[in-house]
Amino acid sequence: xxxxxxxxxxxxxxxxxxxxxxxxxxxxxxxxxxxxxxxxxxxxxxxxxxxxxxxxxxxxxxxxxxxxxxxxxxxxxxxxxxxxxxxxxxxxxxxxxxxxxxxxxxxxxxxxxxxxxxxxxxxxxxxxxxxxxxxxxxxxxxxxxxxxxxxxxxxxxxxxxxxxxxxxxxxxxxxxxxxxxxxxxxxxxxxxxxxxxxxxxxxxxxxxxxxxxxxxxxxxxxxxxxxxxxxxxxxxxxxxxxxxxxxxxxxxxxxxxxxxxxxxxxxxxxxxxxxxxxxxxxxxxxxxxxxxxxxxxxxxxxxxxxxxxxxxxxxxxxxxxxxxxxxxxxxxxxxxxxxxxxxxxxxxxxxxxxxxxxxxxxxxxxxxxxxxxxxxxxxxxxxxxxxxxxxxxxxxxxxxxxxxxxxxxxxxxxxxxxxxxxxxxxxxxxxxxxxxxxxxxxxxxxxxxxxxxxxxxxxxxxxxxxxxxxxxxxxxxxxxxxxxxxxxxxxxxxxxxxxxxxxxxxxxxxxxxxxxxxxxxxxxxxxxxxxxxxxxxxxxxxxxxxxxxxxxxxxxxxxxxxxxxxxxxxxxxxxxxxxxxxxxxxxxxxxxxxxxxxxxxxxxxxxxxxxxxxxxxxxxxxxxxxxxxxxxxxxxxxxxxxxxxxxxxxxxxxxxxxxxxxxxxxxxxxxxxxxxxxxxxxxxxx
Amino acid sequence: xxxxxxxxxxxxxxxxxxxxxxxxxxxxxxxxxxxxxxxxxxxxxxxxxxxxxxxxxxxxxxxxxxxxxxxxxxxxxxxxxxxxxxxxxxxxxxxxxxxxxxxxxxxxxxxxxxxxxxxxxxxxxxxxxxxxxxxxxxxxxxxxxxxxxxxxxxxxxxxxxxxxxxxxxxxxxxxxxxxxxxxxxxxxxxxxxxxxxxxxxxxxxxxxxxxxxxxxxxxxxxxxxxxxxxxxxxxxxxxxxxxxxxxxxxxxxxxxxxxxxxxxxxxxxxxxxxxxxxxxxxxxxxxxxxxxxxxxxxxxxxxxxxxxxxxxxxxxxxxxxxxxxxxxxxxxxxxxxxxxxxxxxxxxxxxxxxxxxxxxxxxxxxxxxxxxxxxxxxxxxxxxxxxxxxxxxxxxxxxxxxxxxxxxxxxxxxxxxxxxxxxxxxxxxxxxxxxxxxxxxxxxxxxxxxxxxxxxxxxxxxxxxxxxxxxxxxxxxxxxxxxxxxxxxxxxxxxxxxxxxxxxxxxxxxxxxxxxxxxxxxxxxxxxxxxxxxxxxxxxxxxxxxxxxxxxxxxxxxxxxxxxxxxxxxxxxxxxxxxxxxxxxxxxxxxxxxxxxxxxxxxxxxxxxxxxxxxxxxxxxxxxxxxxxxxxxxxxxxxxxxxxxxxxxxxxxxxxxxxxxxxxxxxxxxxxxxxxxxxxxxxxxx
Lengths: 686, 686
Known about the structure:
Two copies of one chain form a homodimer.
Chain A: H1 6-9, E1 13-17, H2 26-35, E2 42-46, E3 52-53, E4 56-59, E5 71-74, H3 81-90, E6 95-98, H4 108-123, E7 127-129, E8 136-138, E9 143-145, E10 152-159, H5 162-174, E11 179-184, H6 193-201, E12 208-213, H7 219-231, E13 236-240, H8 245-255, H9 262-272, E14 275-277, H10 280-291, E15 301-305, H11 308-320, H12 330-336, E16 350-351, H13 361-372, E17 378-383, H14 393-413, E18 416-421, H15 427-434, E19 439-440, H16 443-458, H17 479-488, E20 496-499, H18 502-512, E21 516-520, H19 526-529, E22 532-536, H20 539-548, E23 557-561, E24 567-576, E25 580-587, H21 592-595, E26 598-602, H22 607-615, H23 634-650, E27 654-664, E28 669-671, E29 675-678
Parallel strand pairs in A: 1-2, 1-5, 2-4, 5-6, 6-7, 10-11, 10-12, 12-13, 13-14, 15-16, 15-17, 17-18, 18-19
Antiparallel strand pairs in A: 3-4, 8-9, 8-11, 20-23, 21-22, 21-23, 24-25, 24-27, 25-26, 27-28, 27-29
Helix pairs in contact in A: 3-4, 5-10, 6-7, 7-9, 10-16, 11-16, 13-14, 14-15, 18-20, 22-23
């Protein structure tokens, strides 16, 4: 959905329902904020007691107002919320902000009430933010409903937490950053995160979009809005929850939120180019660089310090973040050496060895040489720079000059420049920041930001795939049915026969040839329970195997050709309540859990995307043939992953599909096990 | 070495050699600093031109002083350094601080000059700090030689970088922390990091020891000093370099430092209880908690937020740091619920749901209930607390009362309390910090600190082992000799015979029995080059194998019994230039490199310590028998690791020993390969 939100963010008139003289009440804060915008619009304070509020006449009801209020803020008790909405719509409101708590976040009854309210609001052609929200802020339109702490700026913020929004504002101040617009999401009864993000794409003052969200509602719509924002040159930085089980449970109890798994959020980020952060600090750190349009094309970084210690500590941290520190060419070292003291290291890190104090201009000169060399994607200046301003006014103006020269060098070269300084608020660095170079206080923040931006450069977003129409079908009852379902989707399995007894097994053996695998077709996890026998070489062994697993084989047996050796992958899918089907691939085998090496994408993916996923695994080198083994058929594995993703996308009732292992040999990719869960079959279908 | 350093840190008189009126010179800064201590000692400014410096009479030479200077600071050009030292000793100095650069850090010649100077200094019963150092600071004795930026406090700092020391000082200020003493290490020609750390153990004002060090010199002595400090209740926090190859190389070129590997530093930390950090920020974050004597006994944490968002974000971050967030018992939830609004989540995280504003005392009441419950080792309060002081003076005094109550609750319960606040400098939180509760601005810092302290609680230091006397012996020339060396040290190998040709091989086969393994005894890496044949089942296969590897077998062949299946470990040792022998153990096999799962210790270790190392591997669950396999003989593996560590400790010329794989079966631990490098044999001995 993409509606006109002008009445919400730039109303010609606003009414505060529940305005109050009591400073302890939100209705007081809302009224005070609204009145700060009196120069831009008519402000009406409404309180059923009438009288005076904040030295203005208070109206007893909305019907008493001299004109229709375009925007009504509802700060009333939950029991009166429906009446207040009706009164607002009757008065002609086109936008409502519901501060009221005690509705959808309390359970099913509250959600039903909200749904009915939303129907009414939409019928009237209006929009509703909240309820259970904390207000809105728009810097350009001078609209401040509850957010006096926010400074104006270029960050468009959509947040499901008021306190976190406040923390973001305080952290942003350190960098001189502020907000173009803020919307407190609340219960998202009508306006959802996706629609609010979309509204920021054409919002000129917004240059970076920041989101804190616990429940993504229509997750694919949210992802598409994020994708379009990124494509329009407005980076989206996302803080969300649910990385751990504890937080997912807490978020559910916080607002009844449907929390998406970290897997689904990661898939959405990969599809859209949206960047996930884990804390308010990281959000603001990354936003600073995004606002400065720092765009390293890769991960090669040169570190520049005015003293050895800083450069070396920075090198360790940058390496640990996954940045590359290439040794500079002899030729380039030769060009920077004349600027530096004799013994100064120039290999990378470059160490001025304290020479900055004598010749401050070397910061500009050497940084320019490095950035223009083409040997690195970014320069990271670390340590003392910014502190020279402490010496004297002369030093301060010289350092500011040099800082501006460094900013010009970065702009001229088209390479990235990031600065870490122990004096981040020095006037010279304020000037540097204003000239478009991000400045951090902590070296880990500077290195982390560069590494994340390099990740971004290496992983162009693939877009949010369209979902196919759902296909009906019976849920697979067990392993054999899951195997048939996946095989019909185009996934290869070893040849197999379903047999009822030893006689049929012998016939199958004749057809398939030894060595064989036998699996009991029963409800339990086969290999844990002893329901799988490998490497059967003779009829005698076959008979023994069947006898041993007789109690597990309520559904008979699967007799299968023994697979050759190869590399084991795991492929699977989950259905996220918000983002829909997500496909996963990872390294399999006994170390799979330890490695925690998986790649994920919104399903469906095509074979090329699936291959990209597989090759993005940290352990993908194993596929290329380690220790003298031949490389395996990654294209075949990608085909299987793509087929699984299409199946998952067309069968949304299959909450989980897993192929473990997916055996990849130099010739083919074979599913050696299959599993599909649905709400209906309940237990594992393996 | 442990000498009396009173003359260095509390001299009765001090002379500044090279004092200057020029504010751009260090000699000016030193003189200014020294003069600030005139109330505590006589200060003499020395400059060969005499005249007046900083409105004091300057002496042309040390011989002109009216009394012997106990401490002389030498800020003179390198070429005059020896003369200055002689003059100082002649004048009766007992401590020298060498600011002068251009000596040991420039190469062998400089190091030789330093060695000669140190001989002279020690002969005279004096001590020398530096040269190439930046001065010293002692808060209690009012001694400030170059470090006017340092605030007094309880951190004793030893640093090889002046700029990093400055950055630490600036970061410490945020938390109201300062320094009891600071020594700039410089080239450590005489006084080394270890001796300076040791001097802080009995230094009453020092409560936490912070170290930035690039070169540990006598690493075992340093480690023993750190161990004693930790045992004396003075935590040691270490910032060092060399995590990455780039930084190691840079540090070498910075001061000619012998940089220890991250492995050796980690081993030293495990032995001593010293805590390694990776940045100045981390050092100060951890120091704050150590100064507050926060001592969680384990990793169970309850998170307390005044709004849902903060609690949930904190939960994700705490989980990611490895903290545990146990759900609180129904009984405990029942006891805290009456303090909170109806719908407030109490499971963990505990969410006040905004109720703090109405009843600020719930912060104290609920925190006390949680800390005293015994269900958690620590409470982490996150978000808004501290911000209530912004409302009014009444709120500020109430919040301060509550904060002090929280500190009392922590003290009474003996559990840990850490606070993260978006208002970390609020007066209420300054009071809280002064009452012994660390307060952080960033949630990741608070969670990281708690996790590191929990790690500490779980890994009691094992002490720095004594090194045995070195044993002589020939360096092993190749695999066979390495195998014999390790076998003689008590490490089990599969039975094997060294043979020269097929006839001898047949005889060996008869003796050993099939299946067999054949290895070519040549200089190349056997398995890469095709010099290993596994699973030989017959004389014919044996003949073929010998023929195929004929060109690789300059030294004949090893015919070995084929090992059974089992879990593969890697065991090895390195000799660190500073910390000496270090033993490593990790999971082996094809995923070993990906997992990067190793445990390290200063060698030698006994079998119990070796077993502890093996069990500390993340992947150690595999040893207990995954997927239906029986558990393997960890004690046998530990015995092999301990034997290897003793060998490494007694043969320091063996720069590297490796057993890869060390095969562990349910019955035994067998070394399937052996490798030992020395400076002499140069190439691999495999």
